[in-house]
Amino acid sequence: MDKSTFVPLYKAIVRPHLEYANSVWCPFKKGDVEKAQNRSTTLIISLKKLPYPERLRQLKFPILKYMRLQGDIIEVFKIKHNYYDTGASEK
């Protein structure tokens, strides 16, 4: 598989599973989180022999830890500025 095929497939199929319920789920084992992204990036033949951080750099993918942090910051912003409908839980 080449980069031009992998990136859209990864963003459409794999990444949503890794980001699902990001604000309420924090992985118990930190290494497990990166394993999925690490393993999936080895599918690109031209990048297979490169170390994981270099594969991420070439694909312009952030580390999943940073994506979780960004999701947490967004949730705090929404809570602070009352973007949630508090009446929805009472129905």
Give an overview of the whole structure.
The protein has four helices and no strands. The model has no long low-confidence stretch (mean pLDDT 82). It has 91 residues and is mostly helical. The protein starts with a helix and ends in an 11-residue tail after the last helix. The chain is elongated and about 50 Å long.
Short description:
With 91 residues, the chain is mainly alpha-helical. Helix content is 59%, strand content 0%.
List keywords for this structure.
mainly alpha; 4 helices; 59% helix
Topology:
Blueprint: H1 3-19, H2 30-41, H3 52-59, H4 64-80
If you compute it from the alpha carbons, what radius of gyration comes out, rounded to the nearest whole angstrom?
16 Å
Helical residue percent band:
55-70%
Order of helices and strands: HHHH
* Separate helix tally: 4
Question: How many β-strand runs?
Answer: 0
Low-confidence stretches: none
Q: What is the beta-strand fraction?
A: under 5%
Mean pLDDT, as a whole number? 82
